Amino acid sequence: ERVGFAIIGLGRISLEQILPAFAQCRLARPAALVSGSPEKARLTARQYGLRPDSVHGYEQFERLREDPAVQAVYIALPNAMHREFTERAAAIGKHVLTEKPMATSSEDCAAMIAACARSNVRLMVAYRCQYEQVNRAAIQAAQSDAVGRLRFLQAANLQSSGPGPQWRYSRRLAGGGALPDIGIYCLNAARYLSREEPLEVVAQAYSPPGDERFREVEESMSFTLRFPSGLLAQAQSSYGAYQEKSLRLTGERGSLFLEDAFAYRGQRLHLFYRDGEHGLQRQPQIHPRNQFALELDHMARCIREKRRPHTPGEEGLRDQVIMEAIMRAAESGRPEPVPLLPADMTVR
Ligand code: NAD
């Protein structure tokens, strides 16, 4: 029997990526829908073969308690709502897979971790790239002798965003602009590729004057993280630049280029290193699998085996603490230290 997920929020990520991905899952299946639009939810339920009585409004969320087919919830609501629905899910004994960014403040992240621990339910943040196979091959390569000691990382997550959806331009609902929405991928990659935690950040934010969308949140955030080994990771994130989602990691002996690192599909890894006199280039061939399906199956396996997910709540909290330091650095114009987490909240 597969692990049943209730999908909370039927926006773009749910309808266009997650629900279709279940078809490629081995351990997870959709079991209920929670939405503010009854008509959309009814149509979606029919499309995925769900019974009409497995559709609920946000106010009836607690009805999921009575549904044994639902073991977990997948939260795909605006960032500021992740905490409320995580706490409500934990209170009715359901495991939680929440979208990134985990929340809009480190206080909220800590409260989510505490709520799930109290109820003894698993908590995972949907860092899909950490389940994607080419990114995983890049992690292996980054740790190999061929690349050697890591020196520089450059990552970009850039796009040109349109007028909506409006919640992304609201500080209250989104927690920030390009940084928490897409810059977080660069930050998370710098951490999973190096397996280090940054000590210090410098940053600059920019918003075009007079653009209504960027009155509350930044259009662009550029930041540099300094790691204990000396690695410097530079990242650019923007809602106002031509699409780019790749990263380059350079070590003392070799480097790697990860094309479309943060895209939904189409990742490619290029390795460059020296062998004696020769410069070599290699492109590992990796059979693509749907990263959303891999992510959902990982959560399902953790629920079955009562295991801690690979990207638990502490991973989301860690990124949130660093993003708060990045925002302080952009504000102050000076390097800002990244605060340490209590020992029981460290991820690695
Ligand atoms: P979206 O705007 O398409 O969907 C959000 C949903 O929340 C909508 O169905 C909307 O009706 C509902 N909602 C409920 N209350 C709301 C309110 N007060 N204001 C606005 N909407 C409200 O957004 P999305 O792109 O699906 O993003 C949802 C979450 O998923 C966000 O946390 C986002 O960061 C994350 N996300 C992750 C990825 C990824 O690749 N992992 C990609 C996109 C979005």
UniProtKB/TrEMBL annotation:
GFO/IDH/MocA-like oxidoreductase domain residues: 136-256
Residues of the Gfo/Idh/MocA-like oxidoreductase N-terminal domain: 4-127
Molecular functions (GO terms): nucleotide binding; oxidoreductase activity
Keywords (A to Z) from UniProt: Oxidoreductase
Region named Disordered: 333-348
Protein family (similarity comment): Belongs to the Gfo/Idh/MocA family.
The protein, known as: Gfo/Idh/MocA family oxidoreductase
Organism in which the protein naturally occurs: Roseicella aerolata
Full-protein interval shown: 71 to 418 of 425
